[in-house]
Structure prediction request, 411 residues.
Amino acid sequence: MTRIRHRNLAVRVCLIATFFVYGTLQVHAQAERAGAAATIPIELTSGKPFVQVKVNDSEPLWFIFDTGNSGGPGVEEGQARQLGLDVKITQQGQFGAGEGKEISIGQATGVTLTVGDQKLVNQTVMVLPMDHVAVVEGRSVDGILGYSFISNYVVEIDYGAGIIRLHDPNTFKYDGPGKLVPFRLFNNWVVVRCPIKLPNREPIDGAFVVDTGARGTILFNRPFVEANRLLKTMPEMPLVTIGGGMGGEARGLVGRIEHLQLGPFLLQQPIAVFSQDRTGVMASDAFSGIIGGEVLRRCKVFFDYSRQLMILEPLAKTPPPYEYDMSGLFLIAEGPDFKTFRVQSVMSGSPAADAGLKRDDIITAINDRPAQELTLEHVRSMFKQVDEEYRLDVKRGEQTLQLVIKTRKLI
Prediction:
């Protein structure tokens, strides 16, 4: 297992949100179970489930429900200050996806978290910066739940219905059409063995973390890419921004593989990211890569940590094809209401590049619809539609421009 050391402190690598890590304390939840399954509404953003959580006596806050977080809960540092938590800085250094950014991570003790009718008392929570994650998601990210909460239950994530059900593992019995996929727990991650098939290659076996808090379909860590020479038979692929983490902007090569075998399911022509990061979680050799929300959101998914089983029920007999952005833009959303859509990067040779869009341009309207009426999630969905023409009102410094892009398949 790869370890990060700082000031003689060994820190386990773990995944959070848009591919970033933090040092964990092994804090186990003291959950007051209600006996029958508890039901919690969720909101999906980038395929990630968000749930409402109260911190002590706070108003409901939005936490990512994240199987990629192998430790205790985390609270965004700005929220922790507003809530008056007594935060002590425990670590400083470079963590997570992206490269080169130093951050501070703290902890607060004696915290009560309430999730639906489930209460976790006397918790030690990590306190960490997440404002960089919020702009990538286009919404508030107030915290994160992970292993210490999830492992107390059989968790049923019904992506189609927009709810999570928490079942008591002692009484849970499954009776449905889903298929069983065994996993093993490795540093409290859900890890599955999956063969992948690339063009003109025999299948290659890998160990992948199943991460509800990750965008995308499948991501290959750089050491796995290099050790297996994955790029050897792949066609030329664009190097693009794939997200943002505690280390800064994360980039990778994006293309399609022939298929991914997840238990009994064969995922045809999925989008795959081949990480190029030299530091952070995607530079880890502890596992091969990540299976993310773009796969999971097509199913009803059960995570049974006590039996180390995942159950998958596809929501449709014929799932929709996997698609990627067709504009060539990677946008972030800034401002208190996340309505300032800023261009983070432009793919070379894409419709956005052809139209003349540049990094740091601000899109103020699309087809005469002002940004205030849109969300980042909505805009990204629009740009995944093929052969659509969009008129963009753009602010570039003091200039106001109107540019036109016509989407096309880039991957």
